[in-house]
Amino acid sequence: MKMSKKKVIIAIVVAAFVVTAALFWWRTEHGDNHDTSVQLYGNVDIREALLAFNSSEHIAEILVQEGDRVKKGQLLANLHTELLDAQLGSAKAMLDAQQQVVAKLEAGSRPEEISKGKAELKAASAKAKSTRDSYKRLLRLVEKKLASDEDVENARSLADVAEAQQEAAKHSLALLQAGPRKEDISVARAELAARQAGLVLAEQQLENANLYAPADGVIRNRILEPGDMAFPSTPVLTLAFVDPVWVRAYLSEGMLGQVPLGAKALIRTDSYPDKVYQGWVGYISPTAEFTPKSVQTEELRTRLVYSVRIYACNGQGELRLGMPATVSIELDQTLDATMNTCGQE
């Protein structure tokens, strides 16, 4: 009789264990429909930029140290600029010279030049008339045998030369009055545009000798030092963009429909256990992946999960790269897109 009672007790215990295990499995696989929130576990992640000069020269100064917080547009480092300064000065001088050439062509002939041309034409005309009259007088004298044929021929040549000089003076005056050709002005203007572009290029090359912060952040590493040779392909500084940061976590497939993009979240860390950071779901991966290798149980490794990023503002710099974090997300919440920016925190 005692043996029978003992068997009954054992059967009851086994049955209770089986039922408990089945319920645990069911809740693990399908979730508890009465849960109002979900907790995720992950690590803080940030973006970084490798900052390099857009020029090749020796580094003159690096104005920041590792750990310094910098603002967007802040000067971080610069190169030696002796050669670039000389190139800029040359470009300015060449531009000034070409501007004078264009101004001269556009202004046309000066009144004094036109007056001089008129005077030269008048003198040439008078000389042409004088030599022609002399030639005609000698022709009459030849008929009376008072002049030789050689004198007449010389007088004729002088008259022809004087008339040619008169014609040349006339055309010179016409050119002065008409001013420069349009084609010459166009060529000069094109050359001026080229010189202006050359000046812009020289100014930009000089500006490329400065390295500015592309955004607010923290200097994580000084890769080069003053005196090192900088190249566009060689980073000088590493800048961490620390606001916003995000917690990289993973969602199971069953939770995808309950955690929408833009949902508000609460973030807690072991470093500041009494502080809660406001965040939002800013990214859900469109593709599934196996549970990361950092999760060491064989059962969890074989499950497919979706990577998510829960963004948070980090104005005080308390959330640091790699820091473990716990994320709580209320289910079935009303989305408020205006809260999903650091400016609204």
Automatic annotation (TrEMBL):
On the tree of life, the source organism's domain of life is: Bacteria
A GO CC annotation recorded here is: periplasmic space
- UniProt-listed InterPro entries: Beta-barrel_RND_2, HH_YbhG-like, UPF0194_transport
User: Which Gene3D superfamilies does its entry note?
Assistant: 2.40.30.170, 2.40.50.100, Helix hairpin bin
Question: Which ranges carry the YbhG-like alpha-helical hairpin domain?
Answer: 85-208
Which keywords, in A-to-Z order, does the entry hold? Coiled coil, Periplasm, Signal
KW Ribosomal protein (keyword) present: no
Q: Does the keyword Signal apply?
A: yes
Places the protein is found: Periplasm
Q: What is its main location?
A: periplasm
Q: Where is the CusB-like beta-barrel domain?
A: 244-330
Q: Which family does it belong to?
A: Belongs to the UPF0194 family.
**Name under which the protein is recorded:** HlyD family efflux transporter periplasmic adaptor subunit
Q: Which organism is it from?
A: Amphritea opalescens
